């Protein structure tokens, strides 16, 4: 399982692992908080070896969908017609998912318990993000505490003070997990053999305040950031990139909501390749993607209070000014 908070760099790491020849044949499950998928389109590979689980977190609201998706992959592996060959499943969770209930699903479902083995959890930590994220987002603390390997992401954008604060915090929350930088994360990391009783007794969590803050219960009930919402925007005609940038800036800085994450794949006017949208608090990036532009553009905004009429109205204004709209 590959986890980490919003924008930590999970999909980038996932693609790097898949590209490593030593990874072997692999299937991928991608979970997205929004109703429309973006990350699945950014994952290398074929549609036959990828399952998308959308519109909720696999740790709670779409946990049953996760199990069904995993059964679907196992069925494809056993099929006599167009059989999909893989020896490993990589599960990329939503940035809002707590790993505990997901791991519990593999123990609770008879088929998964019989036909799969949990190798472990890689958690990507964004060293460039403020460490105060832990005060607002309980999911992040659980992701770090239950990791078998901690992957330090965005180290090139982090300040020395910020990176030091994160490393000290990781030591408090998880004393046992080894750490690697994202650029050094390669497929052999997946051989971490983490299906051990330690994980289920939470011995990796430091005693005292850290464990209390996680509020872990015997059934691994997840705690979520209150008020989080996801809003999806689509366009069936090519989008003017300048107008798109204005919309993204408005979405990132709107006074009536707080944006945590923006992501998207857009067909831009006069663009021969897809335009990939990536945004975190205070940071927006647009860059070229792989392959042909999508027939339908999708932009997803995740944050607190983002389901606001003004944000939807801004997107509608953008569409009105597109040729062919």
What's the short story on this structure?
With 325 residues, this protein is an alpha/beta fold. 33% of the residues lie in helices and 21% in strands. The protein is built from twelve helices and twelve strands.
Draw up the topology in text.
Layout: E1 2-4, H1 10-19, E2 26-31, H2 39-42, E3 50-53, H3 63-78, E4 88-92, H4 99-108, H5 110-115, E5 122-126, H6 133-136, H7 138-145, E6 149-153, H8 160-173, E7 179-181, H9 197-201, H10 209-214, E8 228-235, H11 241-253, E9 258-266, E10 275-280, E11 283-288, E12 297-304, H12 309-320
Parallel strand pairs: 1-5, 2-3, 2-4, 5-6, 6-7
Antiparallel strand pairs: 8-12, 9-10, 9-12, 10-11
Report on the architecture of this protein.
Helix content is about 35%, strand content about 20%. With about 325 residues, the protein is α/β, with parallel strands linked by helices. The strands form 3 sheets. It has a 5-stranded antiparallel β-sheet, with helices on one face. Strands 1-5-6-7 form a 4-stranded parallel β-sheet, covered by helices on one side. A hairpin with an 8-residue loop joins strand 9 and strand 10 (about 275-280). Helix 11 (about 240-255) packs antiparallel against helix 12 (about 310-320). The longest helix is centred in the N-terminal third of the chain and has 16 residues, at about 65-80. It is globular, with a radius of gyration of 20 Å.
Keywords:
globular, 4-stranded parallel beta sheet, 325 residues, single chain, alpha/beta, 5-stranded antiparallel beta sheet
Sheet/helix structural class = alpha/beta
Strand order of the largest sheet: 8-12-9-10-11
- Count of separate DSSP helical elements: 12
Could you tell me how far the N terminus lies from the C terminus, measured between alpha carbons in angstroms?
A: 41 Å
Residue-averaged pLDDT: 78
The helix-strand sequence is EHEHEHEHHEHHEHEHHEHEEEEH
Which of globular, elongated, flat, extended, rod-shaped describes the shape? globular
List low-confidence stretches.
Answer: 194-220
- Residue share in β-strands: 15-25%
**Largest β sheet strand count, sense and barrel closure:** 5 strands, antiparallel
């Amino acid at each position: 399982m590959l986890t980490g908070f919003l924008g930590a760099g999970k999909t980038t790491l996932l693609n790097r692992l898949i590209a490593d020849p030593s990874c072997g044949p692999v299937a991928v499950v991608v979970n997205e908080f929004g109703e429309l998928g973006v990350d699945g389109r950014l994952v290398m590979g074929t549609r036959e070896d990828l399952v998308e689980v959308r519109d909720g977190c696999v740790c709670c609201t779409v946990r049953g969908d996760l199990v069904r998706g995993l059964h679907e992959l196992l069925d494809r592996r056993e099929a006599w017609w167009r059989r999909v060959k893989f020896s490993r499943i990589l599960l990329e969770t939503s940035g809002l998912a707590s790993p505990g209930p997901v791991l519990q699903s593999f123990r609770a479902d008879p088929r998964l318990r019989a036909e799969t083995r949990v190798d472990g959890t890689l958690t990507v930590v964004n060293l460039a993000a403020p460490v105060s994220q832990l005060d607002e987002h309980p999911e992040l603390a659980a992701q770090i505490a239950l990791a078998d390997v901690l992957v330090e992401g965005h180290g090139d954008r982090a300040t020395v003070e910020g990176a030091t604060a994160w490393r000290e915090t990781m030591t408090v929350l998880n004393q046992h997990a080894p750490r690697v930088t994202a650029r050094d994360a390669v497929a052999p990391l997946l051989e971490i053999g983490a299906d051990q009783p330690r994980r289920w007794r939470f011995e990796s969590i430091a005693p005292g305040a850290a464990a209390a803050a996680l509020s872990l219960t015997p059934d691994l009930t997840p705690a979520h950031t209150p008020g989080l919402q996801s809003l999806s925007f689509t366009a069936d005609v090519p989008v003017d990139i300048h107008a798109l940038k204005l919309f993204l800036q408005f979405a990132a800085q709107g006074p009536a909501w707080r944006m945590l994450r923006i992501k998207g794949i857009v067909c831009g006017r006069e663009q021969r390749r897809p335009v990939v949208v990536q945004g975190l608090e205070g940071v927006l990036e647009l860059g070229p993607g792989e392959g042909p532009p999508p027939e339908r553009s999708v932009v997803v905004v995740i944050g607190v209070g983002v389901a606001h009429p003004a944000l939807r109205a801004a997107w509608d204004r953008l569409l009105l000014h597109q040729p062919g709209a």
